[in-house]
Amino acid sequence: xxxxxxxxxxxxxxxxxxxxxxxxxxxxxxxxxxxxxxxxxxxxxxxxxxxxxxxxxxxxxxxxxxxxxxxxxxxxxxxxxxxxxxxxxxxxxxxxxxxxxxxxxxxxxxxxxxxxxxxxxxxxxxxxxxxxxxxxxxxxxxxxxxxxxxxxxxxxxxxxxxxxxxxxxxxxxxxxxxxxxxxxxxxxxxxxxxxxxxxxxxxxxxxxxxxxxxxxxxxxxxxxxxxxxxxxxxxxxxxxxxxxxxxxxxxxxxxxxxxxxxxxxxxxxxxxxxxxxxxxxxxxxxxxxxxxxxxxxxxxxxxxxxxxxxxxx
Length: 313
What we know:
alpha/beta, 313 residues, 10 strands, Rossmann fold
């Protein structure tokens, strides 16, 4: 969520001030819409929410809704409020909403995107590709970037699922000769990564999970953007809309590895991305095609600038 806010602010052209707020008891037991004094909900350790209020406020996450609307009200309407995703309140509560198509949220002030907003830019990809190129220089080409997520409320990603993914990645290598640049997320888990690493034993691969003592692990700076910049093809797991959106923004072919579970929201997203030619299901084979351009960030930033300038008068 934070990356989506940062990505939009950067694309609009601002260097944002980041405020991170944690909610304390008893507010955590109440739906955010029922908080009588929202600014008092901030727990110790949170960044202070005090005047002077900003000219523009970008928020994401439903617990931020009452905080943002309180700031908007206390600023006398001067703070231009933007919410990313579905705020579950009427659209006109905010000056502008940027929501992905799969959220099904519409309104006169709603800008709709294909997927999630992000911080992927050509400059970031090129810079990190140059930084991390030596780490992958020994791998055969083509190079396949493998972006691994993990279990969440909608998907179960355990040892069995990761072992199955490992079998498919091994098959991809055996058929195409491709090298693998693998990166895990904080949700992946050591046991799941161990199952994947075991299946990839002997396959030319560099596996990054940020843990020195994990099977096949490499500690150090996260090569995520470097992998996106260097890869010829990306395999991404289905559990993260943000991760798939970021991969698709590179204009490279993206294969999605599907796991058991899901939801209507995830189904709508993956179905639309396949229908529009951005992704295909990963079946254990190397596939190459030219996907259409996906530039949600530029379009969203342009829409925000237009409405914001109107707000300023």
